[in-house]
Design a protein that fits this description.
By secondary structure, the chain is α+β, with helices and mostly antiparallel strands. It has helices spanning about 20-35, 55, 75-90, 155-180, and strands spanning about 10-20, 40, 45, 60-70, 70, 100-105, 110-115, 120-125, 130-140, 140-145, 180-185. Strands 1, 2, 3, 4, 6, 7, 8, 9 and 10 form a nine-stranded antiparallel sheet that branches. A two-stranded parallel ribbon has the order 5-11.
Length: about 190
């Protein structure tokens, strides 16, 4: 019988889809208030490999990623996704969202995204939230699965997550020495 062990804390990330810089800035500010200091911000990338959000957001969409300094318990992914949905709603203009926030986390082996949509490769976490293993780490880089979204397969995205993984690796090593702040489970 295997021994139950506490999972090490993970690196919280968020992908933000938006049309204008003001919406991005507002979303980043709201995320910072909720999850703490942002320690990585990617360049702004074109979000043009799907038309999924076109009806809601229009054309010429962009995407950016952030990661947070405070590490989190991976069991919090459900509450984190619910919190980011509330941020989206708060930043909306009437029924129309101005930003889409996709939270997830990475550890040394994988990138996990949270979703409200079920599918064959997603695991139900509770409260209407699913987890998807989007990338796995092999050799010296993240690698996509056959179900990985087209944008997450691109070299630009892979490079972003490799850089965030380097930050996480440094934090995990430093955790052993200095006990960096970890966001506890909600009560």
């Amino acid at each position: 019988m295997g021994q139950v062990k506490k999972h090490p804390p993970v690196k919280l990330i968020a992908g933000l889809i938006f049309k204008d810089k003001l919406s991005l800035d507002r979303a980043r500010a709201a995320l910072k208030r909720r999850f703490g200091e942002i320690d990585f911000e990617s360049q702004v990338l074109a979000f043009n490999l799907t038309d999924y959000y076109k009806k809601e957001f229009g054309e010429d969409l962009k995407k950016s990623f952030v990661s947070f300094k405070k590490l989190v318990d991976p069991a919090r992914l459900t509450s984190i996704k619910i919190a980011t949905n509330k941020i989206e709603k708060r930043l909306s203009k009437g029924p129309r969202r101005l930003v889409n926030i996709d939270p997830g986390y990475l550890d040394l082996a994988k990138l996990i995204l949270a979703s409200t949509k079920d599918y064959i490769h997603r695991i139900y976490l509770g409260r209407g939230i699913f987890a998807e293993m989007t990338l796995y780490y092999e050799g010296d880089s993240f690698v996509p699965w056959k179900w990985t979204y087209p944008d997450y397969r691109t070299p630009a995205y892979i490079e972003i997550f490799n850089r965030i993984r380097e930050l996480y690796l440094t934090q995990i090593k430093d955790t052993q020495k200095s006990k960096i702040p970890i966001i506890p489970n909600p009560k």
